[in-house]
Structure formats: structure tokens, C-alpha cells
Amino acid sequence: MDQQTGKYIVIVGLIIVLTGIIVYFFHDYFKWVGKLPGDIRIEKGNFRFYFPLVTMIVVSIVVTILIHIFKRFF
Questions:
Q1: Could you tell me if 53 and 33 are in contact, meaning their C-beta atoms sit under 8 angstroms apart?
Q2: For residues 50 and 41, what is the distance between their CA atoms, to the nearest angstrom?
Q3: Are residues 4 and 26 in the same domain?
Q4: 52 and 73 belong to one structural domain
Q5: pLDDT number for residue 46
Q6: pLDDT of residue 61
Q7: Do residues 36 and 65 both lie within one domain?
Q8: What is residue 54's predicted lDDT score, i.e. its pLDDT?
Q9: What are the distances in angstroms from CA 8 to CA 15, 30, 33, 47?
Q10: Sign of CA dihedral 18, 19, 24, 25
């Protein structure tokens, strides 16, 4: 490991902390997460199966766009 690796670990840690703070204080704005059309939800008696397919695709696209923007400017 070198200094560059340490820098990346600190940046990832800050991103995780900021994400946690945003979710903690603004959780009302994220009620749509997991409830998009195309998310698979099966509930029968004591059995629940939940697979947020469309939500994962949307999050993946947003993260990809943010990474490309970050790489372009930094």
C-alpha cells in the first residue's frame, strides 16, 4: 500500500459518511427507492421476496454518470 491507496480509502470513507448523513436527514425524499415499476415484490403469508431490479438499474446509471463527471474534472 502507498499514499495513493490511503487517499482513495479516505475518499471512499467520506462518501459513505456523506451518504449516511443524507439518508438519515432526508429519508422522506427517498421513499420512491425500491417502489419503482419493475421492482419485483412477492408477499405470501410468512414469505416475502423482494428484488429491486429497476431501482438497481437507476442507481447504477446515476453512479456511472457521477463517476464519469468526477473523472473528467479531477
A1: no
A2: 4
A3: yes
A4: yes
A5: 94
A6: 96
A7: yes
A8: 93
A9: 11, 28, 28, 41
A10: positive
Q: Note whether 37 and 60 are same-domain residues.
A: yes
Whole-number pLDDT of residue 35: 85
Q: Residue 50: what are its φ and ψ, rounded to 5°?
A: -140, 125
In this prediction, residue 32 carries a pLDDT of 81
Low-confidence spans in the chain with pLDDT less than 70: 74
Question: Strand 40-44 to strand 47-51: parallel, antiparallel, or no bridges (unpaired)?
Answer: antiparallel
Grid coordinates standing for 22? 443524507
The pTM of this model reads 0.65
54 and 27 in one domain? no
Separation between Cα atoms, residue 42 and residue 3, nearest integer Å: 47
Q: Which domain holds residue 57?
A: 32-74
Say yes or no: 2 and 19 in one domain: yes
Pair 17, 51 in one domain: no
Q: Are residues 14 and 48 in the same domain?
A: no
